[in-house]
Amino acid sequence: MHPFNNIDLQIPTSPSECLIAIALPTSQEEFYNAQKGGAYQDFVKGIKGKKPEDIWKEKYIGIAKKLNEVMMLAEQSEMTVLPRFKLADLRGLNSYTVVTIFAHWRDHKIKSHDIINVPLLIDKILNSNDSVGYLLKEIINTENTTHSSETLSKLLTKAVESGVFLGFNEKRDESIPVFNRIELSYRSREILDQWCPDCIVPGNKLELYDGLHSINLIEENISKKFRGIIDFAVCDSALLYKKIKNSNRRVIVNGNKVHLQYRLIIQKAIIQGLKECNANYAVLLNMLEKKIVKNWYSKKRKGIFLKILDFILNKQEN
After folding, report:
1. What is the C-alpha radius of gyration for the chain, rounded to an integer number of angstroms?
2. Residue 241 three-state SS
3. By C-alpha distance, which of 45, 67, 40 is closest to 55?
4. 116: helix, coil or strand?
5. C-alpha distances in angstroms, 256 versus 96, 108, 210, 240, 307?
6. Are 208 and 103 in contact (CB under 8 A)?
7. Are strands 205-208 and 104-106 parallel, antiparallel or unpaired?
């Protein structure tokens, strides 16, 4: 989502006006620390694998390498790089024209590790006569009291994504809210979290170095005086756009799942372009994401293209 007008797109972006904010593990030490419950733990929990060391070697070492390449290239191009990005750091964005945030968005979907207490949750569904309990009974077989957290998480996600607003009957005396698909799932998850706070870890949060933060908290910590672009390089981040954009600032978000390695390769190309071509950040991002890569309909061909792009960038650095 690139909500810019022609005036925005005509202004070149100087690398010195850019901030690259990293809120993801960039080393083996940080990754293992996250697995033990440290910073970025929610992000790392979502990476499946048998052994901690295998997950690092097979699933993440390549991403960590790309993150470090982006940070090094950004610093060489006179951009500011801020690893271990925290909530309080959002208050200091006024010095920049473009802020790119690499972080994890905890979306509306319920994961197995989100469910704190399976028996308590099933008991609540069985014994609740309110609208949420009624709708959940329609989807979840409450006669089976031995649901695993894996099965229950899938069923709850199905309820949240069902297209029925979980808070519908709560609003019967008000006008019926109209939501798009993404916002409907977000609002339904919000209702579910409020309905059983002792059973489920809340969703719809952005994970930074100091933990998970709600959209409202993110918005409150961004200075009202900030007049630049915030590029949330995170998955399914479209909800951030609605809350954070205003007449002074522009927000770039993703409505779909983003492959992190792919996004990091694109970021390297953007940094090169800003340094060498006197270009505009939003124009470069749009060109690389929309006009080039997404026209490669075949996944195999897209993968080949990305490898070629990555090879070219690495050759230029050397």
Report:
1. 21
2. helix
3. 45
4. coil
5. 27, 13, 25, 13, 22
6. yes
7. antiparallel
Domains of the chain with CATH codes: 15-107+206-317 (3.40.50), 112-203 (no CATH)
Phi, psi of 93 (to 5 degrees): -85, -10
The reported pTM is 0.84
Query: What is the DSSP code string of 278-316?
Result: ---HHHHHHIIIIIIGGG--SHHHHHHHHHHHHHHHHHH
Q: Which long-range contacts (CB under 8 A, 24 or more apart) does 188-191 make?
A: 188/108, 188/159, 188/160, 188/161, 188/162, 188/164, 189/108, 189/110, 189/160, 191/132, 191/165, 191/166, 191/167
Tokens of 255: 């409505």
Give the CA dihedral 105, 107, 110, 113, nearest 10 degrees: 10
Q: What is the dihedral of CA 158, 159, 165, 171, to 10 degrees?
A: -170
Query: What's the number of CA atoms in the CB half-sphere (13 Å) around residue 175?
Result: 3
pLDDT per position as a tens digit, 290-307? 655 554 444 545 555 556
DSSP letters along 138-154, please?
Answer: HHS-TT-TT--HHHHHH
Q: What token pair was written down for 282?
A: 């939003």
Tell me the torsion sign for CA atoms 255, 259, 104, 190: positive
Q: Per-residue pLDDT tens for 176-232?
A: 455 677 788 888 898 999 999 999 999 999 999 999 999 899 999 998 888 889 999
